[in-house]
Amino acid sequence: MMTKHAPAAAFEDDGDPDDQTVARRGRPVGDRESKRNELLRAGIATIAELGYSGASLRKVASRAGHTTGAVTYYFQNKEAMVRAILEHLFDEWDTLLDIGGAVGDLRQRFRRWKEMNTDSDQWMAQFQLLAQARHEPALAEIYQRRYSAYRARLTATVAMQQRSGEVRDDIAADIIADQIAALADGWAMMFPIEPERFVGTRMDELTDAVLKMIEPPAKAVRR
Amino acid sequence: MMTKHAPAAAFEDDGDPDDQTVARRGRPVGDRESKRNELLRAGIATIAELGYSGASLRKVASRAGHTTGAVTYYFQNKEAMVRAILEHLFDEWDTLLDIGGAVGDLRQRFRRWKEMNTDSDQWMAQFQLLAQARHEPALAEIYQRRYSAYRARLTATVAMQQRSGEVRDDIAADIIADQIAALADGWAMMFPIEPERFVGTRMDELTDAVLKMIEPPAKAVRR
Amino acid sequence: MMTKHAPAAAFEDDGDPDDQTVARRGRPVGDRESKRNELLRAGIATIAELGYSGASLRKVASRAGHTTGAVTYYFQNKEAMVRAILEHLFDEWDTLLDIGGAVGDLRQRFRRWKEMNTDSDQWMAQFQLLAQARHEPALAEIYQRRYSAYRARLTATVAMQQRSGEVRDDIAADIIADQIAALADGWAMMFPIEPERFVGTRMDELTDAVLKMIEPPAKAVRR
Amino acid sequence: MMTKHAPAAAFEDDGDPDDQTVARRGRPVGDRESKRNELLRAGIATIAELGYSGASLRKVASRAGHTTGAVTYYFQNKEAMVRAILEHLFDEWDTLLDIGGAVGDLRQRFRRWKEMNTDSDQWMAQFQLLAQARHEPALAEIYQRRYSAYRARLTATVAMQQRSGEVRDDIAADIIADQIAALADGWAMMFPIEPERFVGTRMDELTDAVLKMIEPPAKAVRR
DNA sequence: AATGAATGAGGTTTCATTCAT
DNA sequence: TATGAATGAAACCTCATTCAT
Known about the structure:
Four copies of one chain form a homotetramer.
Chain A: H1 17-23, H2 31-54, H3 57-64, H4 68-74, H5 78-98, H6 106-119, H7 122-133, H8 137-163, H9 173-190, H10 200-214, H11 217-222
The structure holds a DNA duplex.
C-alpha cells in the first residue's frame, strides 16, 4: 500500500484490515509488512556486520530466509532498502529515547544509550550508514532531518534542566546538547575498535565526567 | 623527470633537479618513494570522496595519472595500500599535533584541528577508514595502536594543565582526554553531513564550551 | 525453448516438447539441469582445446552461448565447475565401460576405448585435468576415488578371465589391471602429440600385443 | 664471478676461457651459461610444483634468486624459456638412460627410471609440459622429435634382446618398445595422484610383471 | 649485462538489477 | 505475490612483456 510495486497487495487483508491496525498501534501491518520488517532486520544485522557495501542483497535476503528477488520486490533497489533501514533505525531510536524522556534524568539516559549500543546492531549499522551517507545524498537528507530533530529534543531537555538548576546555564542549551550528541557519537565510533575502553566502571566514569562537566560550577565548588 | 609516466613528479624537486641526478648514480631511487606518495595522496583523496569500497584501484590509479597495474606494483594489494594510507594519515596528524604541542594551549589545538578538518581530505578519509576498520582487522590494529598513542599524549597534556591549574582536576586526566578525543571524533563524524553546524562563530562557541567544561569549577564561579 | 538464450536446448526434448511443458507446472525445472549440462559440455570442449588454465570462464561461457555470469551462477567458482566436469567425465566413462562389461571381451573393450578417445574431447579433457589435479587437491581426490573404482572393476574382470583361462594367472590380477590401465593412460597421453602412432592398423597391433602379453604363456607356445 | 649483480662478470674469466670449455665437454660455458642453467633449474622446479601456467616468470626468477628482468633477458619470452627447459629435460633424461644402456638389463633400466621419478622434479615437469604441448606447437615439436628418438633407442635395445632370446619375438620390437614407453608414461601419470601404488614391493611387482609379459612364452611355460 | 618500474590485457568473482514465469 | 535464472559491469589481482636506465 505504501510500496510502489505492489499492485494487488491491498487486496489481501480486505476482510477486516482495521483490527490489525488497531492492535498494533497505528501501523498498517499484515503479512506484507511483517515480511518487510524481517528484511529490514536482516538488513540491519548484515550492515552492522559487513558494512554498507558488504551487505549485498543476496546476503540480506538469505539472512532473512528469503530469495534475492524478494528484496527487490519489497524495495525498489538497494538504496531504497537502505533508506528504509535508516528511517527504521531512527524510529526505534526515538522510541527508546522517548520512554522516560520526561524524567529528565541524564544518567538514566546515558545508561539507556549504553544498553542500546552494547546490546544491538543498531549503532553499528547507524555508523556504517553515516559513513555511506557521505556519498549518498538520499541518506544524508535523512540524517539531517532526523538527527537535527533528535538534537532539538535533546536541547529542549537540557534547557528544561538548566531552568531547574540541574545543568549549568553559562553555556547555551543547544551547544551543550551538541556536545553531548558529539560525545555519544565519538564513543560509538571508537567502541567497535577499542571496546575495552567502554567496559564496566570505565563507562560509568565517562558518564560521571559528562555529568560533572555540565553541572552548574557552583555545585562542584561546594562539594 | 626520469620516470616515463610521472608528469607531476618533476614538480617535486624543482629546487635543483640536477643535484638529484648527480647525487644518485644509476637508477633514480627517489622516484620510487615520490611515486608511492603520489599514489598515497590519490588514495586519500579518493577514499575521502568515495569511501573505502568506492575507492577502486582503477580510480585511485587514474587520479594519480597511472595505470591500475602501477598501484598493485607499489602495494601488494588494496589492503596493503589502505594500511599504508592510514599510517600515513596518522603520521601527518601526529606531525601537526606535535607542532606547538609543548605550548599546551588547548584553544590553539582546537583551532589547528579545525583547520585540518576543513582544509583537507584527511579527516574524511580517516572517518571512512574507521568505518572500514570494523571489518578489516589489519586496519583495526593500526587504529588501536596509533589512536591510543594519540590519547596518551593528549592525557599527558591534560595532566600537565591540571597541575598548572588550567584544567579541572576533579576528573581523571585520561577521562578528560577521552572526552576531548570523543568530542573531536563526534564533530568530525557529523561535519560532512551538517557542515553548517561548524561554521564560523558556532565552531568558536563549541570550542569555548569545551574549554569552559574542563576548566576548574572555581574559576567559573568567580567569573 | 523456455530459456532465453539457449538455442541448443530446444534440440534436447525434440521428441515431444509439450509433455515437458505440461508435466512441469510453474517454473521449468528441467531447464536448469539441461543448461548446466550445456555448460559442462562447453567446459569439456574448452579444456580439451586449451587446457585447464586456458579454459577461462569467459571462454567457456561464450562457447556455450552465455555470459560469464551464467557460469558462476551455476557453479560457485571455477574449481567447482571443474570438479563437476571431472565427475561428469567419469560418469560417462563408467557408462561406456559398463555396457558390455559382462561380455568380458578385452578386444571389444579396447575397441570401445579407442572409439572414445578418437571421437571426443573427453580423454583430452581428462588428461588436462589430471595434470591440474597435481596442484588442486579437490581434483586429486576425485581421481583417487573414481580411478581406483575403475581399476577395481578392471581387476575383477581380469580375475574372471584368469579363472576362465583367457588371461595368464602367473601375474596377480590387480597388477595386470594396473598395467592395462597404465598402458591406456600412456597411449592417451601421447596421442595428441603423435597421433600417427595410433592410426588404423597400428592401433590394432598395439591391442593385439597387449592381448598376447596377457594371454596364458602356454597358449602362445602352442601357437 | 657467478654472482648475480656483477656487471663486469663476463670479463672476469678472460684469463683462459677455453680450459672451462674443454673441461665441460664442448659446451661453451661461462657465467652466462651457468646463470642460464640456474634459471632453467628454477624453472623446472617451479613447473613441477605449480604447473606451466602457475610458473610465472616472477616466481621462476625469485626461486633462482634473480630479477624478473633477468629471465626475459636470458630468454626471449616465456615460451622460449620453456622450450629450453624441455630440451634440457630430454638432455638429462638421455644422459641417465644412456649410462649402462649397453648393458641391456631391463630390470636395471626400470630401477633407474624409478629413481628418477621419485627423486626429482624432472618427471613432474615433463608431465606438465606434455599437457601444455597440446596447445603449444613449439613444445609439441620438441616432444615429437626427442620422444621418437627415445623410442627408437628403446626399440633397438628390445630388438637386440629379442635376438639374444631375452625378449619374446612374436611381437614386433617397436610395438614392445611402445608398450614399455606407454607403461612408463602411464605410471608416471598417476604417480603424483596415487603414490601409494608405487611404493616398495609393489613397484617391484609391476616391474616383474612387465618383464614376465615380454619374456619369451616358452621360458614362462617351462617355469 | 642486467635491472625493475610500469603497462595493459585478461583472469576470477561478486553484485545490483531485470524479467519471464 | 514471489521466484530465481540470467545479465553485464566492475571489482581485485596476476601476468608476460617492454624499455629507460
